[in-house]
Write a structure and sequence with these properties.
The chain has 443 residues and is an alpha/beta fold. It contains 15 helices and 17 strands. Strands 4, 5, 7, 8, 9, 10, 11, 12, 14 and 15 form a ten-stranded mixed beta sheet that branches.
Length: 443
């Protein structure tokens, strides 16, 4: 063997002794990445019931066996809040203790099917609290906001709209202008009916019907609303988008007529012109006018939203996340709607907890077919209890970049504001509104 051959063999031997160590280290690193994070187990499920303002809020907290790893989810069904709490504590909690916290889809299906009868608002809200909490946990575990787990941002921020109420046209125009000065580009105009129980402000002595309760008549409401919206469009031009919510308070025939009469006003959308029981009339509306329609806040069941989306009979789907069962099913609604050109406009009134508003915000950020978002501006005492909520700026909601929802709950402060009972709260319900002759109307 000459010197050159010996030198080559020596180098090969040295390299051979180094490479196995490098290969071993690389394989171990790859194995760690493939293994991912350890799977957390559900250790406890708690319910936070609080009423810092006029609305009963229910938030579910899911704790895991990993110290400091927990999540929050909205289960707010303020009209029947006292039923949601035991649904979580007595039924879902025993089902889920000791189960993996990272199998969100499997957990949702187990909760949904375990009751046999399903698609009710009490069960859906209870499931939603757990479901949203598990998404929060997954985001915290991954050290990412939930919108990253949904595919990342499809936009930088989420447009929201303001809501005003007015008795007459001049008042409506002034209040819309005031919202425009706060940089809202879209405003919902609700109309108060003198003497009647409506979704706008009230004025004057209550109208006396053939009964002792609150009165509402759809005919005068339709005429007054059309006049006020016409004046808003005339005075404000096309620089602002206008929404109106009929809140299903008219008959199906009147809903068709109302949508046709509002067509020249070019609404951003007419909301809830029909109740869920009369979905077939949406086809008549679509056949007779081009008024944009939004529907869905009362939906609990896929048989309600699927035909409207697949038939392209509405322009915006606006389910209430907790009523539909949480982020898991509503994310699927958004994906279905995208295939049929329907945009999202999730229901976001005060009877959604700040956790629920944040869940909607994350879905909005990640959905290419996002349309607009109701609510989501959290202020006052609620902002003290629920920290990390969205920031409002220039007509848009901006999410934090913190893991999960980015929300923390001051449970000690929340406990200082328990549910309130009494005749004014009707145990969380809305009471009854009737026509002049005593007929109960939809709300």
């Amino acid at each position: 063997m000459d010197r050159r051959e010996w030198s080559h063999m020596a180098v090969a031997g040295a390299v051979g002794s180094v490479l196995p160590a490098r290969y071993s280290a690389a394989e171990e690193q790859a194995a760690r990445a493939a293994r991912g994070l350890p799977s957390p187990v559900i250790k406890d499920i708690q319910v936070i019931a609080t009423q810092p303002s006029d609305v009963r809020l229910i938030v579910v907290k899911v704790l895991t066996d990993q110290d400091g790893l927990y999540g929050y989810g909205c289960a707010t069904f303020t009209q029947r809040a006292d039923l949601v709490v035991p649904a979580v504590e007595k039924y879902l909690k025993p089902l889920l203790l000791g189960k993996p916290a990272d199998r969100i889809e499997d957990t949702w299906q187990a909760c949904y099917n375990s009751s046999y009868w399903r698609n009710g608002p009490v069960l859906n809200n209870a499931i939603s609290g757990v479901d949203q909490a598990l998404w929060d946990i997954k985001g915290r575990q991954a050290n990412m906001p939930v919108y990253q787990l949904l595919g990342g941002k499809a936009r930088e921020a989420v447009e929201t709209y303001a809501t005003i109420g007015a008795i007459d046209a001049s008042e409506a125009v002034d209040r819309v202008r005031a919202m425009m000065e706060q940089e809202f580009k879209c405003i919902k105009v609700m109309v108060g009916m003198p003497g009647m129980s409506s979704y706008g402000p009230s004025s004057g002595p209550p109208l006396k019907g053939l009964h002792s309760g609150a009165v509402f008549e759809p005919g005068p409401y339709m005429r007054r609303t059309r006049q006020i919206l016409e004046e808003c469009r005339k005075q404000l031009g096309d620089e602002v988008e206008l929404i109106h919510d009929a809140h299903e308070r008219v008959t199906p025939h009147q809903a068709v007529q109302f949508a046709k009469e509002l067509e020249p006003i070019r609404l951003f959308y007419l909301e809830d012109p029909l109740p869920p029981e009369q979905l077939a009339y949406f086809r008549q509306i679509r056949q007779q006018c081009a008024t944009s329609i939004a529907m869905g806040e009362l939906f609990n069941n896929p048989h309600e939203w699927q035909p409207l989306i697949e038939g392209r009979l509405i322009d915006y789907i606006r389910c209430h996340l907790s009523q539909a069962g949480g982020l898991t099913p509503v994310r699927k609604i958004a994906i279905l709607a995208e295939q049929f050109g329907v945009k999202t406009a999730w229901h976001g009134p005060p009877d959604v907890s700040p956790v629920g508003h944040t869940a909607q915000l994350h879905l909005d950020l990640a959905s290419s077919n996002f349309g607009i978002q109701e609510g989501g501006i959290i202020r006052g005492l609620e902002a003290e209890i629920f920290t990390g909520c969205a920031t409002y700026k220039g007509g848009y909601l901006w999410a934090s970049n913190k893991p999960g929802w980015g929300i923390e709950v001051n449970e000690e402060l929340a406990a200082k504001y328990p549910f309130r009972d009494g005749p004014d709260h009707l145990d969380g319900g809305w009471g009854v509104v009737r026509r002049y002759d005593g007929t109960v109307i939809n709300q």
